[in-house]
Amino acid sequence: MVPAGVLGLLLCVQICRGSEELRLVDGSGRCAGRVEVKHEGEWGSVCAYDFDWDMRGAGVVCRQLGCGTAAHTSPYAPFGQGKGRIWMHPYFCLGTEDSLQNCPHFGWGEHFCSHERDVGVICTEALELQLVDGGGPCAGKVEVKLQGRWGTVADRDWNMNDAEVVCQQLGCGSAAHTTFSWRVSQDHSSLMLALINCSGIEKAIWNCNVKGWGPYNTPLDYTTYVECQGFSRLAGGDSACSGRLEVRQGRAWVSVCHGHVDLMAAQVVCRELGCGAALAVPGPGHFGPSVGPFWDGAFECNGTELLLSACTQRRSHMQTCTHSAAIICS
User: Fold this and answer.
1) Sequence-distant (≥ 6) Cβ neighbours of residue 194 within 8 angstroms
2) Which of 132, 151, 242, 270 has minimal Cβ neighbours within 10 Å of its Cβ?
3) Cis upstream peptide for 104 (omega within 30°)
């Protein structure tokens, strides 16, 4: 028989360990805001100094909440100061902890910082990117959604490396052209990201070196324009609306294997290219010999996607591919 006191302790280890809850508040969504924990039925903030709080601790918060990875964090109350208790003062999180409560801290309610250093975190699930006013999803003014609203990005040294990250993130292939301009506006506009430096290989624009995280209200209207090459194209046909299907892999074009594209996927390609509706997916060799290398995968579309890159992609079970997929649009 297990003594009652020991049994109670074992139950507490299993149940009480996960009794503290975590949330992000005042960030217009569950995946961005001031970090708060619930202890003994009461919500309180988390404070830290900049020398012992970094993206590793923020990564623990985002992972614990199911909000992706950390995009930005600050210990200077970026989402305002809390009004109640300060429950935690964590330090030197490893980044591998299952929860923020497992990071080293001074004890519940024990802290050496004030609400001026309430920690704020922005997770990747709280961020969105789009190109607008360019005639399609792969060209236009760069906008980022932050704290629940859309705004511009600005960088006087904006270049093709920055544009490349935007295009690849949106599934629009490589960057073809980009410009940056600004003008004085009577209406204050929202600036979300400023002073952006990308190497060109980042998975998302917020993974670049971003020095200015908004939102900022500014009298300047910034226009960061990006035009992408697109994710798909048809080659070897009589026009841009028929031919062998090729897709963008990094900065190179590769062929798609015959049998890895059906009529639904063809509908998406034709729409993406502005070529009307798909008429046919002809057999192998219809537009001449295949050109390698090949895209290692197949596309499964429902026909409503705006871009082929938005379709579900599955791994290929074929060992080798000898014929390219072909599409004829209306």
Assistant:
1) 153, 154, 155, 210, 211, 212, 214, 216
2) 132
3) no
Nearest to 170 by CA among 123, 130, 114: 130
Give SS3 for 12: helix
CATH homologous superfamily of 19-124 equals SRCR-like domain (3.10.250.10)
Report how far residue 233's alpha carbon sits from residue 254's, in angstroms, rounded to the nearest whole number: 10
Classify domain 127-228 at the CATH topology level: Mac-2 Binding Protein (3.10.250)
Residue 70's Cβ-count burial label (10 Å; 0-12, 13-18, 19+) is buried
Q: Which CATH number fits domain 232-329: 3.30.1360.10, 3.40.50.300, 3.10.250.10, 3.40.50.970?
A: 3.10.250.10
Mind listing the pLDDT tens digit for each residue in 268-288?
999 999 899 999 999 888 888
Residue 320 is predicted with a pLDDT of 77
Pair 114, 47: CB distance under 8 Å: yes
Residue 84 has pLDDT above 60, yes or no: yes
Q: How far apart are CA 155 and CA 160, in angstroms?
A: 12
Rounded Cα gap, residues 280 and 262, in angstroms: 9
Q: What is the DSSP string of 200-220?
A: S--SSGGGSEEEEEEEEEEEE
Strand partners for 294? 255
Q: Where in the chain is the domain with CATH 3.10.250.10?
A: 19-124, 127-228, 232-329
Residue 170 pLDDT > 70: yes
* Model pLDDT, residue 55: 96
